[in-house]
Amino acid sequence: MSHSAMLEVKNVSFSINQNRLFQNLSFNLSEGEAIHIKGTNGSGKSSLLRILLGISSASKGDVIWNAAADKIFLGHKNVLKNYLTVADNLHLHGLNATHSEVKSMLQELNLHNKTDLLVGNLSYGQQKKLALVRIFLNTSKVIILDEPCVGLDDQTRVLITSFLSSELDKNKSIIFTSHIPLEIPSSEVVIGRL
Amino acid sequence: MLKKLYHQFASPKTYIVLVDKMYPYIFYISLCVYSLALIWGLAYAPADYLQGNSFRIMYLHVPASFLSQSLYLIMATAAAVFLIWKVKLAAYMIKAIAPIGALVTFIALASGSIWGIPTWGTWWQWDARITSTLILFIMYLGLISLHSSFTNFEKADKFISVLVLIGFVNIPIIKKSVDWWSTLHQPASITLTNKPTIDPSMLYPLFFSMIGFSGLIVCLVILSSKVQIFNRESNKSWVKDNV
Amino acid sequence: MFILFKLELFKLRKKLRAWLGPILVFLLITISFPLTVELASDDLKNVFYSVLWIASLLTVMVSVEGIFLEDYEDGTLENFSVSNDSLFAMVFMKIFIYWLLIGVPISLLGTFFSISMSGQISSINIALPSMLISTYIFINLFSLGNSLSLNKGSVLGALITMPLLFPILILLGKIVLNAGFGFEISNLLLLMLGVLLLIIVCIPFIISFIIRTHLE
Questions:
Q1: Residues 174-233 of B with CB under 8 A from A
Q2: What is the SS3 assignment for B50?
Q3: CB contact under 8 A, C216 and A57
Q4: Which residues lie below 8 Å from residue A132, measured CB to CB, with a gap of 6+?
Q5: pLDDT tens for residues C66-95?
Q6: For chain C, N or C: smaller number of CB within 10 Å?
Q7: What is the ipTM for the molecules in this complex?
Q8: Based on the structure, what is the number of domains in chain B?
């Protein structure tokens, strides 16, 4: 495996209950690179992400991660507790809401004056933004996102895209699925039938 | 060579071929043996001096209870094999044996109740062995319901294996319960170490009935496992040829 | 490990109805018991241990119902397994915290009531250790049941693990009987302690395997 390669996927196939979702998938990921996984609904994009994360295992083939590649993941579930405040939720993820870095991130996402609100009272989009805070303030080398911009308005989407681009500049790698086009330089991996 | 053996036995296809060959023999031999045992036991063995003729239900009750525990042991072995070596055939066997285990345990409980009426005057008693056997029955039912509540079969296999192994603690309790607590059930008459305390004229039909009944149940297990294998491997080509 | 402890404690502490509710239910049962039975009868003192034990069993069973459900549904469990932290440690801590916030208060309350019922301080020797150990065992076993039915949210898992409870219940019943008659129970308590130590190690391991399978 070359120096900057983060991930090698070789001939991966996956099936549930004898139904094959995808087969013989191969691609590589390097540092500072982004991969956009495309496919129709139900083609197995989320399943592929789970295989890459190590939660599920592929029916056939190999997924080889660089030993230095620590991953962080955001999927459809927000990993937020509805009965705790925004500040408490950040605390659960090891983030102090009074730190300058956290404060400026919250300010950019327009959540800084909501730190004492219960997450259950926030709107869907605001909860999604809070979930993304955890991703951007993390030092993991690989970011894996499943539909990151669902439920966000255009302005926020532009903001998130700029955050993702700056992560790429910091030499992190991103793997994402998105039906909504994201304006970051990425290579495409298509699974299933288009 | 060991690897070759492993591949042979772990493959459902080989299993089906093997089993198809053996089935007629097992069925007919067990049928004969068990019929022989029943006739001998029901008609020719002498009446017990305490219980009279009612003890004859022993020829159904004892094989059934013995089998209910043995089947669970086989399931537990299969569960361990599945979890350690990931042999799918083992998981199919667990699913196949569970309903039959439930059936046999039910026969054991029912025949035991029927035996209890003339002997103890009651058809139910909360003594250690009966209660633990009832728990075994509930465990079998639980296994069946757990597996059918999952749509993803691979997950269901893992859960059922874990549950079988956890429930395994019940088996030593059943076996030893007649020794630990002095209760209604009589202690074991046939052990591996001591001379049997039961009279030979009743012992021989009992042995034959055990063998015969076990053989018949093995036939049921074979049929059930074939159904499971055909179900789960339904898109493989050799299945489409066979069915 | 200690960080996990603090985080889990933080989560449960804030969710008042999850732990205060069961404690209040237990309190309700133990208070209603002497109110509904004649105080003067001698039988009361023997039956009381039974009532304590059954009340703690049911309270624990109901309170542990959502132990993993919330974390499963909001993605915390998934996140945990991605970050390669030890799921065993997390499950162990969760169960421990539940015992600290539910099992221990119930045991203290129960001991207090047993003292007031029997009029002897020495009943603390019977009630306190047996309740502390048995509540911890129950929490472990019911968590196991709930982890099996994680995605269905039904009580199927709890029902399935009930047969496994029976050996413990028999042991506990023996303790209660002996305590009622005033016999020596320290050897039975030691046995129960041994069972607890075995369970503390095995159950979180089994549960983490079950959760990993659910997440697949």
A1: 232-233
A2: coil
A3: yes
A4: A74, A109, A148, A160, A163
A5: 889 888 888 889 988 888 778 899 999 999
A6: N
A7: 0.84
A8: 1
